[in-house]
Specification:
Number of strands: 3
Distance between the termini: 42 Å
Structural class: mainly alpha
Strand order of the largest sheet: 1-2-3
Radius of gyration: 19 Å
Oligomer: single chain
Length: 227
């Protein structure tokens, strides 16, 4: 029987080598992109089904579009429903190393993450099974080192995913409905964690090392790189 599917984590699909899969750059939990956008979701489904026409596999193709952004707020009242409680402005005397910058930002985000945990009674953080301080240090050291050393890429991947969860849950600690596309763009555009991930992406992508290039390809969504 021919099969096809949709992947949100490219490197996992590359490792498993299923017969046919379509990779999308959307937020975790939204394999078809923006909710209630039937036309866009139809294009994703048809692209996945089109892989059934391939005579043999494994096939892993990238969906060529990012999920559409929610429209910008038209007034202040509407914007009140989407804001981050943390001021991520970088001070003039910002620490020089990514390790220090992430440690400082963690101090700001931690109270909001803890507030989120008290309100929601649950968290998706913890997959890496390590203290958040250790994860921030691992990512900071990777950003500081660039492509100078490969290290344990699997551990780095788990650290990055867990830190993104920690930051995003803290950033949405206030009551309200937060469109994931806006919050994710805020993470990539305005936080030290987002900047550190882009620094890792840039160093790995230009390293000439196939392992690091593949890691970079799965690390950042297209909108984060192109903005």
């Amino acid at each position: 029987m021919q099969t096809t599917g949709i992947s949100l984590v490219r490197e996992n699909t590359e490792a498993l080598k299923p017969p046919r899969f379509l990779w999308t750059s959307f937020a975790l939990g939204r394999p078809l992109g923006k909710p209630n956008d039937a036309a866009f979701q139809r294009r994703v489904i048809l692209a996945a089904l089109d892989l059934l026409n391939r005579p043999e596999g494994p096939v892993l193709e990238d969906f060529p579009e990012d999920a559409p952004m929610a429209p910008a707020p038209s007034n202040a009242a509407e914007a009140d429903g989407v804001f981050c409680p943390v001021n991520f402005a970088v001070p003039d005397a910002a620490p020089l190393t990514w390790t220090s910058r992430l440690a400082n930002e963690l101090l700001m985000i931690r109270p909001w993450y803890e507030l989120s945990l008290r309100r929601r009674k649950r968290t998706s953080f913890g997959a890496a099974k390590a203290p958040v301080e250790d994860l921030a240090r691992k990512v900071g050291e990777a950003a500081d080192a660039g492509a100078a050393t490969v290290g344990d890429l699997k551990a780095l991947k788990h650290a990055l995913e867990d830190l993104k969860v920690y930051w995003l849950e803290g950033m949405t600690a206030q009551p309200g409905d937060y469109p994931p596309d806006r919050i994710n763009r805020l993470l990539w555009r305005e936080t030290e964690l987002g900047r550190a991930m882009l620094a890792i992406h840039g160093a790995f992508a230009g390293s000439g090392n196939p392992l690091l290039i593949a890691f970079a390809r799965a690390l950042a969504p297209r909108y984060a790189i192109e903005d």
